[in-house]
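Justification of resources, computational component.

The compute hours requested in this renewal are based largely on the per-chain cost of generating structure records like the one below. Each record pairs the submitted sequence with a full structure-token output. That output is archived, and it is also reused by downstream analysis tasks.
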Amino acid sequence: MPGSDASAASTPASAADQPVSLVVRRDGPLVDAQVVAVASCACAGRFRIESRSGSANNSVNTSSFGRIDKPGAVLSHIRFGGSDDWSIRLTVSIDGRNDYVIARSSDRNP
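The structure output for this chain reads:
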């Protein structure tokens, strides 16, 4: 149906809706990934980072956070790599909100 919710579905969430983000950079053969606060939030939650490099190097890290007072604060920092084929997935769970996922890979790294 023209003019229906199609445009709303493609609208990105605001920083207030998703106060935690993932910043990924290549550093030679390594992937440098940071979980970063992008907005203040009087919220508590947790996140899970799943990283993969090649076909056998997989890791999972979990952490929790309380109130976010300082946008730009690094909540977690991991480095992995050794392969041109890699992926990373961040799942953020904030109390009282729907979970959200941010994924990056060697195939799609904005």
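Confidence is low (pLDDT under 50) at residues 1-12. The beta strands are 20-27, 30-37, 45-53, 57-65, 74-81, 86-94, 100-105.
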